[in-house]
Design brief:
Elements (H helix, E strand, L loop, with lengths): L46 E3 L2 E3 L12 E5 L2 E7 L6 E9 L2 E5 L6 H12 L7 E5 L5 H4 L2 H8 L2 E4 L1 H13 L6 H9 L4 H10 L2 H4 L9 E2 L5 E4 L2 E8 L6 E6 L4 E5 L21 H15 L5 E4 L8 H22 L10 H4 L9 H17 L3 E5 L5 E5 L6 H5 L3
Parallel strand pairs: 6-7, 7-8, 8-9, 13-14
Antiparallel strand pairs: 1-2, 3-4, 4-5, 5-6, 10-11, 11-12, 12-13, 15-16
The structure holds zinc ion.
């Protein structure tokens, strides 16, 4: 998606996450700002699919670096990413004599250059007054330190995301912890796969500019003002531990980050730092909670793909998709299997190379969720490999114990 918009030299990266290999290029391109509501007034762009409505269409891909107004005083800035998922949507909010920005892109020379152009062009030389980061993944937090230092403004972020980010950054340059090797061996990785993991370990810090030493904490349901309008923080969990969405009732929209995306189901993974974690349970509860507390008629502004209407429908699809996967996985465990033997019931595409680690994390999230529901049990063999199987009397737990 969107590769045709990438500068020539980026086309053969094969979507690999190679931060060290990103070339220094000049991204000399105008960044025209579209006229107010220009896109919203073009009904021929509207598309509908699977219960969602896309006011800008499903294939809308503004050029990287282009800034478009999507609601009164709310602008989308699309940036290029060196991953399989090749773009991120950042948000610029008019804020009196300056700007509030939401998310920042990976730290790489090209993204800094695009920001420079945006400062002078669409942002008209006005300062950034506050940088809000939805969550700690490098495509969101990458340039937060660089931007806040440059403008002398604060980083607004939830506490868990800020601390987790600082922890992960500090791993860069260290040896791979033995706990992590034990974790991936238990999932069924062979020595070759473990070696590939060793080589990639510590990549996080290379994609993130030096983090600020202090921050402004934001918390669930907190209300703040931008340009005379109220915005509210709505927290979700599962894709990352304390992810902030930003809801503006006056504009009837929500900046949803990676918590709600139209056609991508966000990665929900178990990581070696917390092998027994149950992030899928967090994710399912978050989806249900967002559907309960937020109105359905919001324009959803996600970090990837296109803005859309149909928040409740999408949240329902996300829940149903995972529940379907959980039940297929349960059926698959009629005999003991390793995590890496469980890709079949969970993923439609073939799993290899880049997405292998992500697939393991996601598979473990589903397995740990079934363990949490007392449906599945796990046993480690003498070689340190975990085997998962259906629990005898699986499903009778609640009725037998009376627990709620
Ligand atoms: Zn993310």
């Amino acid at each position: 998606m969107g590769k045709e918009n990438a500068p020539e030299r980026y086309k053969n990266t094969g979507g690999r996450c190679t931060f060290d290999a990103i070339p220094e290029v000049s991204y000399d391109r105008g960044v025209p700002i579209r006229k107010k509501n220009n896109m919203l007034k073009a009904p021929e762009n509207v598309e509908r699919a699977k219960g969602l409505t896309y006011p800008f269409g499903m294939k809308w891909q503004p050029e990287f670096g282009q800034v478009t107004e999507v609601a009164d005083g709310v602008y989308m800035l699309r940036m290029w990413l060196p991953f399989g998922l090749d773009h991120i949507n950042l948000w610029l909010l008019e804020d009196g004599d300056g700007w509030t920005i939401v998310d920042t892109c990976v730290d790489m020379p090209d993204s800094r250059k695009i920001w420079e152009q945006v400062f002078e062009g669409p942002m008209a030389g006005k300062p950034i007054k506050r940088v809000i980061v939805t969550h700690m993944h490098p495509d969101h937090v990458g340039l937060a330190g660089w931007l806040t230092r440059r403008f002398g403004c604060a980083l607004w972020m939830s506490r868990t995301e800020f601390l987790m980010c600082r922890t992960l950054v500090s791993d860069t340059g260290k040896d791979v912890p033995e706990d992590a090797i034990t974790f991936y061996r238990a999932a069924g990785n062979d020595e070759d796969a473990l070696e590939r993991y060793r080589e990639r370990f510590g990549g996080f810090g290379k994609a993130v500019s030096k983090m600020p030493d202090s921050f402004r904490r934001i918390v669930d349901r907190e209300v703040f003002e931008v340009n005379g309008r109220y915005w509210q923080v709505i927290t979700g969990s599962g894709h990352s531990p304390e992810h902030s969405c930003l809801y503006c009732p006056g504009l009837k929209l929500i900046i949803s980050g990676d918590q709600v995306i139209s056609r991508i189901s966000s990665n929900v993974s178990v990581f070696p730092t917390e092998p027994e974690g149950n992030p899928l349970d967090d994710w399912l509860r978050s989806c249900a909670r967002l559907r309960e507390i937020l109105p359905d008629n919001l324009l959803v502004l996600p970090s990837h793909q296109q803005p859309f209407y149909g928040l409740h429908t999408r949240l329902t699809h996300l829940i149903e998709g995972h529940e379907r996967a959980l039940s297929q996985l349960f059926d698959h465990l009629d005999e003991p299997r390793r995590a890496i033997d469980c890709f079949g019931p969970l993923f439609k595409r073939t799993i290899s190379g880049d997405n292998f680690q992500l697939a393991i994390g996601e598979t473990l999230a589903h397995l740990n969720c079934l363990i949490g529901r007392r449906m599945v049990m796990k046993e480690r063999n003498e070689k340190g490999v975990d085997f998962y199987s259906q629990r005898p009397n699986a499903g009778d737990f609640e009725t037998e114990t009376g627990l709620v």
